[in-house]
Amino acid sequence: MKDKAAKPGGRAAPAQKRPAHRLTMADVARRAGVSTATVSRALTRPDQVNEKTRDLVRGIAEELGFRPNLIGRQLRVRAATSLLILVQDLDNPFYAELIKGAEAVARANHLSVMVGGTDGLEEVEQLYSEQFLGRRVDGLVILFGHLPAGISPKMAEHSPIVLVSEDNPALNLSSVLVDNVGWAERAMGYLMERGHRRIAHITGPLARIISRQRQEGYWNALAKAGLPQDPALEALGDFSFERGRAAARELLSLPDRPTAIFCANDEAAVGAILGAADLGLSVPSDVSLIGFDDIMLAQISQPPLTTIRQPRQQMGAAAAQLLIDMIEHGPGKRAHKQLDCELIERSSVRSI
Amino acid sequence: MKDKAAKPGGRAAPAQKRPAHRLTMADVARRAGVSTATVSRALTRPDQVNEKTRDLVRGIAEELGFRPNLIGRQLRVRAATSLLILVQDLDNPFYAELIKGAEAVARANHLSVMVGGTDGLEEVEQLYSEQFLGRRVDGLVILFGHLPAGISPKMAEHSPIVLVSEDNPALNLSSVLVDNVGWAERAMGYLMERGHRRIAHITGPLARIISRQRQEGYWNALAKAGLPQDPALEALGDFSFERGRAAARELLSLPDRPTAIFCANDEAAVGAILGAADLGLSVPSDVSLIGFDDIMLAQISQPPLTTIRQPRQQMGAAAAQLLIDMIEHGPGKRAHKQLDCELIERSSVRSI
DNA sequence: TCCTCACTTGCAATCGATTGCAGAAGTTAT
DNA sequence: ATAACTTCTGCAATCGATTGCAAGTGAGGA
Known about the structure:
Two copies of one chain form a homodimer.
Chain A: H1 25-32, H2 36-44, H3 51-64, H4 70-76, E1 82-87, H5 93-108, E2 112-117, H6 122-133, E3 139-142, H7 153-157, E4 161-164, E5 174-178, H8 180-193, E6 199-202, H9 209-224, E7 234-235, H10 241-252, E8 260-263, H11 266-278, E9 288-293, H12 296-300, E10 306-309, H13 312-329, E11 336-339, E12 342-344
Parallel strand pairs in A: 1-2, 1-3, 3-4, 4-5, 5-11, 6-7, 6-8, 8-9, 9-10
Antiparallel strand pairs in A: 10-12
Helix pairs in contact in A: 1-2, 1-3, 2-3, 5-13, 8-9, 10-11
The first copy, chain A, binds a DNA duplex through helix 2 and helix 4.
């Protein structure tokens, strides 16, 4: 990659004879007997050039298969061209749909979307920050709750950056969020309305703000119902299927078994279905389950999962839109967009 | 976006006073009392400039927070900077993992990854083709079996383009594939080894080559075993969960019910589990099921699905690598990379 | 003392398109 | 016929960095 020097020995040079002179506007101009300025105008501002000239130039450009070099254009016309979406885990289905929403809006605004999966690695964050600082991307959608290494909070203040899904109140950045605390409370409320009193919680990884917020909602609901917090009813999870399964086994082996479990996400909830099955218990007859997110899995699981749906695609779209506004009008003041979730009733909860 | 003209009425202009003159090398140069050439070298070829000058320049660059404009650099140094991955449906989990694999390899080679979801729309394909023709991206990973609108086969011959997952033999392009026919046959073989003779098939959408290849594998296996093709045993699917469910109901309502079903993909297979359940039948005791792909769902379904695993991440990585080679050494001759699948034995098949 | 060579640095061209400004040509009004 | 406009086109600067070439400096050798 970096070293193209001809190898001393080796097989004969495979490359083409000449570097295949790339077609530029100058070529079209020469061929049409006009200046490059005219070519440029003929191609991008048809009304500013005489009809005959325009058709001539366009014809020749067509015939030659000329396409303007977008890098050249971009250097001159400083218009935004792309957004970068930063994710920790690119193949998490939750993010995929979000990316889709953002891409659609970006595309409608003549922007393209780059994606970067950081795996949580600082060096990779740094690398992508460079793209932003080097103005190769014009805005940043961040799907984790911190600034990527290489971007200082002060810098971020004045930049088109938006935090999505996971907030970080310490940074005062624009964001697109759902009310995790409130909807966790709502999920708990749903369980309580159906008579459940002894309700366990499988958390997400507590290092993540989003997990702590859902936990807070769990606590709030308990408090409002005058129920005590019982540490034994909180099992540490990490959003994974396997951990959800194990956690459910722990919780359901308790002497005084909970009648329902609020899971911090769907994947863990589906794990919990199996964890229950491991103990010969079935959902919802022996234990009720409610999840969070409404990933595809939630519809397909047996039983289908009652859960809180996050409007993922809309979140992505809103993020892109916010960014585009910031790019056009300057960062201005922070915008905090909050989208509504929805409780999707399926069959993993029964009344008692 | 296109029209920035000041709105006649409205609130006061929110934009900053001045467009915040962007820092360039010239600024650093002036401040350091050297030429931009020296700044450039001090920053990118440390050994070519005197130690003292270098430190001075770097210090000032640091202090000023200068970052070189990557667009300017890219215009001058024609090095590849990015790959574009084109997909029909961005939130299909199958592709997400593939993108992840490609991104990792791209990143390791100092390239970034753009993604485009076309939804199968020609106009969107056209739009992304433009990015490629305009040299804003240097290579194309295509995850569907045709060239995007706007790129002619002849053009494609000489360009860094690779078809992944879905081939199109008509185009003679480089590709990264699995042997869909062979592995479909293998799936069928697995069923037959376990005594199944009456085996149905839920196809994918037959417009897609990949579906037809798996179907061909199904037929081949039948033929090799001396079994007849029975049209009644082939149900048209579309890779979706719902259609899989419906198809399974049709097949299992047949007077002479199949003992096993080979599903063209996992999502349909999981649907089939429920389709069977709809008829009071259970998997694998009443009917065996084998899928294709090994998406996450396959591990989690009840019962977990026996299936053919495609090495998605490797496919993405191989595609990126192939592209990078083509970019460095010219397209050269076509490379067809075939990766191995793996039969993952879980519990959706029983011997009879 | 003069020559050669290595090491630093700057000049200016270059990548490819866009666009402000001004001149040329043509039209209309007076 | 002349002034006043329009309309069209080209010149040349510009966006921001990189790099071939040449010049300047100082050290070391003859």
